[in-house]
C-alpha cells in the first residue's frame, strides 16, 4: 500500500533530514516508527502524503506515485487519514460538523449521509453523546478520538499517526490507543509514529527504528523486541522500556 524507495530529503541546502530511506507497508499491515526526537519520523510520514516534498527516491501510495507533478495531491491526501499529536479539530465547529465537513466538501456526500456516517463513527469511538458539543468542551483524549473518527469518515485506504498520544495526560492515553488497537485488528493499514511500545507489542507487524535520518532497523516485531541488531536501537529501547 505504501512504498518508500531510497528517499532523500533536505531541509534547506545543507541539512539532510532523510537519508536513503527504504521501507514499505503492505495492505492491512501495522508498522510502528520509533526513534529519538529529531530523527526524521514526522518528516518521513509527512512525505507519504506529500505534505513535504522529497528530493530523491520515490514514494507510491496504492500504486500512485506521490512525488509526481502530475499526481492530484488533494485527491491523494483525501484517501489517507492523518492524525497528529495536536488534535487540530476545527474549534468553531461542533463535533458532528467537524466530521461532516470534508465528507461534504471533498467527497461531495449529501449532508444526511455525512451526518449518518459521522454519528456511526462517533458511536464507534464511544462519543455519540458528544456530537453537539464544541471541541473545547471535550478532554484531550476525547478530542483525539474525534480526530481519528474524522479521518475514518473519509474511508481512507491507510492511516498515518504522528505521536497521537504524546500530548495527552497519562490517564487518557489508553482510551486513544484502544481505538487504534481496534482499528489495527480490523485490518486497517497503519503507519504509526509512537513510543508506546505496549501498543507496538499488541498490534504492530513491524517496527522501524530511525536515527539521524536513517532507517536503522526495520524488523518484524518479535525480532525487534527480541534481538535488535544495532547498538543505537538497543540504547533507545533501554531508555524507553
Ligand atoms: P522527529 O519527528 O523524529 O522528532 P522531525 O522529522 O520532526 O523528527 O525532524 C527531523 C529534523 O528536521 C529535526 O532536526 C528538525 O529540527 C528538522 N526539521 C523538521 N521540520 C523542519 C522544517 N520545516 N525546516 C527545517 N528543519 C526541520
Ligand atoms: Mg515528530
Automatic annotation (TrEMBL):
It is found in: Cell membrane. This is Amino acid ABC transporter ATP-binding protein. GO terms for cellular component: plasma membrane. It is a peripheral membrane protein. Residues 2-237 form the ABC transporter domain. Keywords: Amino-acid transport, ATP-binding, Cell membrane, Membrane, Nucleotide-binding, Transport. SUPFAM superfamilies: P-loop containing nucleoside triphosphate hydrolases. It comes from the Bacteria. Involved in beta-(1-->2)glucan export. Transmembrane domains (TMD) form a pore in the inner membrane and the ATP-binding domain (NBD) is responsible for energy generation. Its main location: membrane. Belongs to the ABC transporter superfamily. One of its GO terms (molecular function) is ATP hydrolysis activity.
Amino acid at each position: 500500500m505504501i512504498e518508500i524507495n531510497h528517499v532523500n530529503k533536505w531541509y534547506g541546502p545543507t541539512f539532510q533530514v532523510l537519508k536513503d530511506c527504504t521501507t514499505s507497508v503492505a495492505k492491512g499491515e501495522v508498522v510502528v516508527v520509533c526513534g529519538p526526537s529529531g530523527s526524521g519520523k514526522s518528516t518521513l510520514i509527512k512525505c507519504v502524503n506529500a505534505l513535504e516534498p522529497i528530493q530523491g527516491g520515490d514514494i507510491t501510495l496504492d500504486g500512485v506515485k506521490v512525488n509526481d507533478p502530475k499526481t492530484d495531491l488533494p485527491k491523494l491526501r483525501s484517501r489517507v487519514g492523518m492524525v497528529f499529536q495536536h488534535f487540530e479539530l476545527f474549534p468553531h465547529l461542533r463535533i458532528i460538523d467537524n466530521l461532516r465537513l470534508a465528507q461534504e466538501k471533498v467527497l461531495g456526500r449529501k449532508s444526511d449521509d455525512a451526518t449518518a456516517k459521522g454519528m456511526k463513527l462517533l458511536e464507534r469511538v464511544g462519543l455519540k453523546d458528544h456530537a453537539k458539543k464544541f471541541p473545547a468542551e471535550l478532554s484531550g483524549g476525547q478530542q483525539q478520538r474525534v480526530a481519528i473518527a474524522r479521518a475514518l469518515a473519509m474511508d481512507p485506504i491507510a492511516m498515518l499517526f504522528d505521536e497521537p498520544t504524546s500530548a495527552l495526560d497519562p490517564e487518557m492515553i489508553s482510551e486513544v490507543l484502544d481505538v487504534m488497537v481496534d482499528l489495527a485488528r480490523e485490518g486497517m493499514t497503519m503507519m504509526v509514529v509512537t513510543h508506546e511500545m505496549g501498543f507496538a507489542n499488541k498490534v504492530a507487524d513491524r517496527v522501524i527504528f530511525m536515527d539521524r535520518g536513517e532507517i536503522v532497523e526495520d524488523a518484524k516485531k518479535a525480532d525487534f523486541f527480541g534481538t535488535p541488531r544495532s547498538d543505537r536501537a538497543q540504547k533507545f529501547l533501554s531508555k524507553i522500556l
